[in-house]
Write the structure tokens for this entry.
Amino acid sequence: MVEEHTVEASLPPETSNTQPPLTGSAKLRRLLAEPDKIVVCPGVYDGFTARLALRAGFECLYMTGAGTTMSRLGMADLGLATLNDMRDNAGMIASLDRSIPVIADADTGYGGPLQVGRTVSQYISAGIAALHLEDQVLNKRCGHLSNKQLVPEEIYLARIRAAVNARRQSPGDIVIIARTDALASLGFQTATARLKKAIAIGADVAFLEGLTSQTDAVNACKELAPTPVLLNMAHGGVTPTFSVDEAKQMGFRIVIFPSLALNQVYKSVSTAFDLLRREGVVSYDREGGGDPSLRDLFGVCGLEDAMRFDRDAGGDMYSDGV
């Protein structure tokens, strides 16, 4: 006799009375709904820097486009990264911990409305919580370099509209961040006017790139309220250095530090390489516990979780340790 099983009996017990975890976009929206909250996002560009940021306990990560271009292509941020480069990197980072939202650079959307729509759909499928779209020409450059070229306002708004429409047609969700680089060439009023029109179309967050004064920073938050405004703290860029507390006091709701990991790697790894080349030795910073072991490095990247998963499934690959 064939034994009959009900649908309920075939389900794992823990799925019957539990709520599904929040998606990254839902978690980010919840964070932005807290009126006195500022979301602090360290810039990460690969799995290892993302793992370090997760271990530090951040509530949200930012995948830097410049860092992605440099780490994946070995090239400067001059519009060379493609949709596939950016989506694959951001999706990998988002997959490391689905409970932590990832905000990712999406440059110009990589084409016209059809291409922008595909970008948004692909980012949603990859589990990315938020993306930002800008108003530079397709052959763009880093927002803190000079002589940026902009598209006409109607083309920029078509990008935002395409993003909103693609999100509406998708079974998932994503937070759309409208970015403008118009401040340097067109001035504050024109730049904020572009953002207001993008918000009216359906953008969730405003991003005024290249702020050069605290006055403009404060005024931007006031002009664009109640829409959350993002502050880009690109070290070595044109924006003055503000602390998280200062950013919060000015009215910002999100602050990203895109070059944080890049700068630290540049300094420390350059020093280590120079020492090895000149003197033939390797020296580690012994402050805080001595040299890292391979197990320390693997541990950051989920060694214990992987061993536990194997054991819980009945595997014995790591029963004697590693």
